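Extended Data, panel c. Modelled sequence:
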Amino acid sequence: MKSLYALNSIRRTDRAVVEMYGNTGDDKTGVFELPSPADQESMIVIASNDAGWDHVSVSRADRCPTWEEMEHVKHLFFKPEETAMQLHVPQTDHINCHPHCLHLWRPHLVKIPRPPAEFVGPVAVGVK
């Protein structure tokens, strides 16, 4: 995960954040509010770094974030060479605390396996 101090201009530091989390965060944690690249409406991002995982949750008041919005957040919060993932867990492990929230995860100690690029779509010459 990138140092989140670079995102201090969109970091929420209001009383509600301090009351909920005890502080306003640091270089790996915090609550952020940013405009959607799709429609400029507000998105809330909660970033954490604990127990061997980088994690960001992305929510909107009116709907789930789109692919474009999740990609935007991924580029803001993670380094270009880092892979982050969304997980679809077994139904028995499903937890839903907010109807319009999606998550990005990155484990610290293992590399996320990825399928061969050609399984995803046509591969451009020179791209691996």
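The helical segments are 15-21, 67-77, 117-120. This feature is highlighted in the accompanying rendering.
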